[in-house]
What does this fold into?
Amino acid sequence: MPHTPITYGVDYYPEQWPETRWAEDARLMREAGLHVVRLAEFAWALFETAEGTFEWAWLDRALAVLGEAGLKVVLCTPTPTPPAWLTETYPDCLNVDERGVRMSPGTRRHICANHADYRRLAMRITEQMAARYGKDERVIAWQTDNEFGCHDTIRCTCPSCEPAFQHWLEARYGSLEALNEAWGTNFWSQRYSAWSQIQPPRPAPADHNPGLLLDFYRFSSESWVKFNAEQVALLRQHAPGHLITHNLMIYFFHFDHYQVAQDLDFVSWDNYHHFGAQPVTVAANHDLIWGAKEKNFWVIEQQVGQVNWSVYNPQFPPGMLALKAMQAIAHGADGILYFRWRQARKGAEMYHSGLLDHAARPTRALAEAALLGERWETLAQALEGIEPAHDAAILHDFASHWALERQPHTRSLNFQAESDEPLLFAGDEPLQSIAPMNRAGLYLLPMYEALWRNNLQAAIISPEGRLERYRVLFAPQLHIATASHAARLRAWVEAGGSLVVGPRAGYKDESNGLHEVPQPGPLAELLGGTVREFDTREPGNTVELDFGDEALQAGVWCEVWEPAPGTQVLATYGRNRDGSLPYYAGQAAVLYRRLGKGQVITLGTMGGWQLIEYLLPQLGLSAPIVTPMNVEAVRRGPLLFLLNHTEQQQEVTVPRAWGDLFDKKKVEEKVRLAPYGW
Ligand SMILES: [Zn+2]
It folds into this structure.
């Protein structure tokens, strides 16, 4: 598998501008040091003007103008935006959401992956495009479709999905008896006597069977995984020399990123900073994307200023654009493409910034992009084939995520909850810094943040990932655990790994039911104990965790553990925030055991990053470099990136004198960083 190519470019929509403008745009792109443009992800209606009538002349001319200027091209299959004639001819290809509402045409992603005619036409436009441009040397890569899952469009309950779901279940379970057993359909008289009786989870008076829900989520995810794989197969056939990627988006967790990534040469993602996003959450997003394939990635849409869609839409201050690009590169981005070249004059995204404004004036962002463009060759040489360092990995499992999403069991862990009320306190101090848009962070982020604050680097990977590459593993949400998870993790620990497991581990089986044995089910031997009971606590009702030498704060979810012989109790529950004692005061909250050459720490509760930071010495981890808050030091091969995310000047003392990549004369131990500097 070749390295992810080093690429610097921009996303361009020639179809939205007069042809007489194209050459000037191309010239300005080159002047800014950009050398790649991404094209065409929303241009289906211009390629196929009526069913079976193809028009490629405009793209031929655009490629000629761009190629003439020395620009290379990433072409996209245009399937997220079917033309109006398609949805008029085949109106039942419009997807139906979980409320049973059929989408209207006219925007994007309003289609069902399982609708036969949409699917046939989506693959035909892909094949036509690949056959025409698959051997074109100006084209270096392809992006399949655009942002699977955007606008909550993975889960479709339409009449095409119903039989497809039934067939999927038949293939998974083999017999109705097996399905009835796995889902426990004796509950509420849900027993099925024919596959045709099983429906996607449409609106109903009460909650659907959790087994049905999780399998429907798996089926929905796989529908798009297969849609992507089918496009990839066509591209591989017709464009054998070109690389293939797809642009993931961090919040779109309704499909399994690890499965989509398997079919791609490398993954890309679209790096947007909604209002309230913090440097730590953006860093975590990069590391989650790196972990999708455990390989360097591209940021194929890098925000350049205001977006049009957040709650508030602050402008980037001077320096922010280059800082965001450098943060991505530090965390393993090999490509940066800015979104978008020019602010649109028409259409729903007209308030979204571009490197040119809507009137074609160059912006501050273009000047900053050009400054990085001047340095790109130096960077490219230094980055080629170099991966970021990883001191640890954090396991992230989609099935567990979907199970927790549907049955959070406490409002505080409800991923859909809009509120960002603090959940944990030390005295009067809130203990969390979680981006409110993504409550998946409640499991994952405290572990990530503890590492990040100490400039320790973590990849966020699948439990099926390459565990042997890491010395320390965190498993914050291994809610659905199987014997195979247990065996894999056990072998890894015995060989010398340090494992930290979070609460709610191993409570559920693969069918989203509870194991026959006490929590943590098949993980009991590995973790060295079982859960006797658990409590959920309302926001702010923190409980003390007594480690003997230290008292820390926890809350939200509190499990009472019974250690097996040979397992130590590392911490017990102490006082409530108001000073009273919970009935489980003095009971086991955190377990510790040695196993083979390794060790396992089990957390029965949720703390802030402080809890994880307290455990770092036990895991053999310490800060390689100490930096002020919100100044990151990120290691990528022989390179050290110092990134100042604050609006103040900062000073960092590095452990030895380092040369400057861009200024060979400069060698420093004390590095001064300008506001938003690097
Ligand atoms: Zn459907």
